[in-house]
């Protein structure tokens, strides 16, 4: 089966990581849909590399939840899971507000300049309907907001959760213009509340922001399953 994409020739250095990055982008963008079989020989030919780094890339993506390696079938793009969405977003809704409460009072002028730049870039990408970077910018904003919490272990856990929900976040943002505009407004409100020192209000808004994304995704997937 041919890949539904333009060929990407990879350089010989760190080819497994490059293959993982290329496949991650294809899965995140929806170019490789859920259930799509990822044949090692086809991927190796597509990227111009051997099957060994392709196999390593697939194992890496399995660890991120983007790929399932099925006995006697090989690797397939993971299906969208309501149970997984509920669990991952629940954990984010528990942990991120806690980190924000600790981080917000310590955010610097440089941090706020970076947050403002991310907001401006998100608005630019949104106005141009370039959805490929929405998930990345969302993750960057959340990362900066929590970066001064001083809790490296919890931050590492949340970083993993953000990575694991990135695919879902991109899907949620792509559902409608209203979803994107609401995310933009809530992000701007979060930054402004932190800037004003309204830490409790910011943490409460962050919790609602995450929970709303979860609810919207659950409704979308369940409705699609019923079709």
What's a concise summary of this model?
With 227 residues, the chain is mainly alpha-helical.
SSE topology:
Blueprint: H1 15-29, E1 37-38, H2 40-47, H3 51-63, E2 67-70, E3 74-77, H4 82-103, H5 109-127, H6 134-146, H7 152-174, H8 177-195, H9 199-226
Antiparallel strand pairs: 1-3, 2-3
Helix pairs in contact: 1-3, 2-3, 4-7, 4-9, 5-6, 5-8, 6-7, 7-9, 8-9
Question: What descriptive keywords fit this protein?
Answer:
single chain, 227 residues, mainly alpha, Arc Repressor Mutant, subunit A, Four Helix Bundle (Hemerythrin (Met), subunit A), 2 domains, 3-stranded antiparallel sheet, globular, transcription, FCD domain-containing protein
Give an overview of the whole structure:
The chain is mainly alpha-helical. The chain has 2 domains: 15-77, Winged helix-like DNA-binding domain superfamily/Winged helix DNA-binding domain (Arc Repressor Mutant, subunit A), CATH 1.10.10.10; 82-226, GntR ligand-binding domain-like (Four Helix Bundle (Hemerythrin (Met), subunit A)), CATH 1.20.120.530. Helices cover 70% and strands 4% of the residues. The chain contains 9 helices and 3 strands. It has a 3-stranded antiparallel sheet. Strand 2 (67-70) and strand 3 (74-77) form a beta hairpin. The model has no long low-confidence stretch (mean pLDDT 87).
Strand tally, please?
Answer: 3
Structural class: mainly alpha
Strand content: under 5%
Number of spatially distinct domains? 2
Number of helices: 9
Q: Classify the fold: give the CATH topology of the largest domain.
A: Four Helix Bundle (Hemerythrin (Met), subunit A)
Oligomer: single chain
CATH homologous superfamily placement of the largest domain: GntR ligand-binding domain-like
Question: Main sheet, how many strands, which sense, barrel?
Answer: 3 strands, antiparallel
CATH class of the largest domain: Mainly Alpha
Q: Provide the residue-averaged pLDDT.
A: 87
SSE order = HEHHEEHHHHHH
**Any idea what the radius of gyration is?**
19 Å
Give the proportion of residues in helices. over 70%
Cα separation of the termini = 27 Å
Strand order of the largest sheet: 1-3-2
Low-pLDDT ranges:
none
Shape: globular
């Amino acid at each position: 089966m041919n890949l539904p994409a333009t060929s990407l020739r990879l350089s010989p250095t760190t080819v497994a990581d490059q293959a993982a990055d290329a496949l991650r982008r294809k899965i995140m963008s929806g170019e490789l849909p859920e259930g799509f079989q990822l044949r090692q020989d086809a991927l190796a030919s597509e990227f111009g590399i051997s099957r060994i780094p392709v196999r390593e890339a697939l194992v890496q993506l399995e660890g991120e939840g983007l790929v399932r390696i099925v006995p006697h079938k090989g690797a397939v793009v993971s299906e969208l899971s309501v149970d997984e969405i509920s669990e991952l977003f629940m954990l984010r809704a528990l942990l991120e507000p806690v980190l924000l409460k600790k981080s917000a009072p310590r955010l610097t002028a440089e941090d706020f300049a970076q947050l403002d730049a991310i907001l401006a870039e998100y608005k630019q990408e949104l106005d141009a309907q370039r959805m490929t970077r929405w998930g990345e910018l969302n993750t960057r904003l959340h990362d900066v907001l929590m970066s001064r919490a001083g809790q490296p272990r919890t931050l590492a856990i949340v970083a993993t959760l953000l990575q694991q929900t990135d695919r879902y976040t991109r899907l949620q943002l792509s559902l409608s213009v209203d979803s994107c505009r609401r995310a933009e407004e809530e992000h701007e409100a979060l930054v402004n509340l932190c800037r004003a020192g309204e830490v409790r209000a910011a943490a409460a808004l962050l919790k609602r922001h995450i929970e709303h994304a979860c609810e919207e995704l659950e409704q979308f997937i369940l409705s699609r399953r019923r079709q």
